[in-house]
Amino acid sequence: MQNSVISRRSALRGLGFLTATGAVASVLAPASASAATELPPSEVAWKDGKYVLPPLPYEYNALEPHIDEATMRLHHDKHHLGYVNGANKALEALAAIADGSGDAALTKNWERELAFQGSGHTLHVLFWNNMAPKAGGEPKGELLEAITRDFGSFENFKRLFSASAGGVEASGWALLGYEPVSGKLQVLQAEKHQNLTVQGFIPLLALDVWEHAYYLKYQNKRADYVTAWWNVVNWDDVAKRYAATQK
What we know:
Blueprint: H1 2-14, H2 24-28, H3 33-38, E1 46-47, E2 50-51, H4 69-98, H5 107-129, H6 141-151, H7 154-167, E3 172-179, E4 184-191, E5 202-208, H8 215-218, H9 222-229, H10 235-245
């Protein structure tokens, strides 16, 4: 049983599932060098002892007309990079507290920063890989069976997920994930990046509804952005991540 748990945890870490929304130990646990080299470049989020910004798995304009090139450049190169830098800064500060050279009174501050910045980083890695040009439609196979089992139908799931995305207060995400205690798929909101989670929840599909994800093209029309986003969902990627939770 223990080996099975370790195997599943390793697989999920390799796919970028272990986010800062869980225990801090999950964030601090590095992927091995060999595991990182086996991942596609777009999923290598940790390298040489620190968080890194992976490249997009497609060109900046590949998701046009649904998500515009200007937004993709700003979102990936500026906003996502900011979370990478913030997470690394938090790790350095916590390491200093651990070795006695840092201010222990700031532990809460830096752990909150790690939760926020680290979750922002890992969710963005998931978000980029969850999308692809000429994608969309509906999932197939075991993923579709699981969605139908847990939500009644794909249309029911899509309605719930869209409502979740539209209802996020201020900044955050809509997430489809696997909840291992029940063994079922769930849809959750994430306020900011790290709030409102169910501990152990494994994100499989992420939709960023922070304004920087859509404002250049859609202004304040978040619902239009959500509708357009369904045209670029990479169901093959989501299916791969779901399959990893079943091993």
